[in-house]
């Protein structure tokens, strides 16, 4: 029932996101025509009037907003002031790179965080537990861009274990684009040299972006596991001779994963926002880098589209979290 309510409220939420992104783009007080024609051409009233008419900026703000919403509902986000291309085309080229990075960061962060939480809950209050708690504290304290620079210096420059910035070595030929996900396209083309290079180059940005989620998962899951292990039914199972490993994995972990799944789902949306800094540090050609390139040029169509994309990711992650909770806990399905 809760999942159905979320789905019914999704269009209203998306409309609110569109209103906020449109309002923020107009709240700067800077005339968007400057980004179109340049400051020198602003001195010519005829050029300014022609630009306003061409881009629909001569219409009332309410009409501009309704037109923006209607076009966005059809997948038309307008034309970029900077690239002079449809924003949808730009995003279609950039989104797979960001999606690949965010998925890798989510998977890596979840696996590392869950593994550390299990170890910490298995031997609480010991040296290993203290190390895990220190890792979690550092993960939530260190900004993603600083983590990226640190990883580049240690693993790419000093130890020379992994390559530096960039999604693919310039000497390699990219595979044919089927999905835009470089690892998937390289595997489909059976180009394993490209696949290996792309995988190695994905490790550092995914680790920098996923460190935060690994820390949050480790902290939350550790506390939940320790609480679950103290429950009566697990204490009774322990008295019957069940091993600590089975108690932890078969009895405590499924219940502890319910709140952790919500955290992971919502963190996926926040990783999209964190990708802006990560992609900048690692020269990753994704949506985050596109947004950062668009901001100084006052490219309002591109900025609004990226803002709406982030809002959609946040809304959908909430729906996925509710669905996952209902799957893990059948009691939630009837609410």
From TrEMBL:
Coiled coil: none
Membrane topology: Multi-pass membrane protein
PROSITE patterns: ABC_TM1 (PS50928)
Segments traversing the membrane: 101-123, 135-156, 202-221, 256-277, 298-321
Residue ranges annotated for the ABC transmembrane type-1 domain, each copy included: 95-321
Keywords: Cell membrane, Membrane, Transmembrane, Transmembrane helix, Transport
Domain of life of the native organism: Bacteria
Gene Ontology cellular component terms for the protein in this record: plasma membrane
CDD domains attached to this UniProt entry: TM_PBP2
Keyword Transmembrane helix: yes
Subcellular location field: Cell membrane
UniProt-recorded Gene Ontology molecular function terms: dipeptide transmembrane transporter activity
One Pfam family per UniProt: BPD_transp_1
Family as reported in the entry's similarity comment: Belongs to the binding-protein-dependent transport system permease family.
Protein name per Swiss-Prot or TrEMBL: Peptide/nickel transport system permease protein
Source taxonomy: Bacteria, Pseudomonadati, Pseudomonadota, Alphaproteobacteria, Acetobacterales
């Amino acid at each position: 029932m809760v999942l159905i309510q979320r789905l019914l409220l999704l269009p209203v939420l998306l409309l609110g996101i569109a209103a906020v992104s449109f309002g923020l783009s107009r709240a700067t007080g800077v005339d968007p025509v400057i980004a179109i024609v340049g400051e020198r051409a602003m001195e010519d009233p005829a050029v300014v009037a022609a630009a306003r008419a061409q881009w629909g900026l001569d219409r009332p703000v309410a009409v501009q907003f309704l037109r923006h919403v209607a076009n966005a509902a059809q997948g038309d986000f307008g034309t970029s002031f900077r690239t002079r291309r449809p924003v949808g085309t730009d995003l279609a080229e950039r989104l797979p790179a960001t999606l690949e990075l965010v998925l890798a960061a989510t998977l890596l962060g979840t696996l590392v965080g869950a593994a550390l939480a299990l170890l910490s809950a298995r031997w609480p209050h010991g040296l290993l537990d203290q190390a895990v708690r220190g890792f979690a504290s550092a993960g939530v304290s260190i900004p993603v861009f600083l983590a990226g620079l640190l990883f580049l210096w240690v693993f790419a420059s000093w130890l020379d274990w992994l390559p530096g910035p960039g999604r693919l070595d310039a000497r390699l030929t990219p595979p044919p684009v089927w999905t835009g996900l470089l690892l998937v396209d390289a595997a489909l083309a059976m180009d394993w040299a490209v696949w290996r290079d792309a995988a190695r180059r994905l490790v550092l940005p995914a680790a920098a972006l996923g460190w935060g989620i690994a820390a949050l998962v480790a902290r939350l899951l550790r506390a939940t596991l320790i609480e679950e292990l103290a429950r009566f039914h697990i204490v009774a199972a322990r008295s019957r001779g069940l091993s600590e490993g089975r108690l932890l994995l078969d009895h405590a972990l499924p219940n502890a994963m319910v709140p952790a799944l919500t955290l992971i789902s919502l963190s996926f949306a926040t990783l999209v926002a964190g990708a802006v800094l990560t992609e900048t540090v690692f020269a990753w050609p994704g949506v985050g880098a596109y947004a950062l390139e668009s901001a100084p040029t006052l490219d309002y169509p591109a900025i609004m589209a990226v803002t709406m994309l982030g809002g959609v990711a946040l809304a959908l992650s909430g729906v996925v979290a509710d669905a996952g909770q209902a799957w893990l806990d059948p009691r939630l399905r009837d609410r």
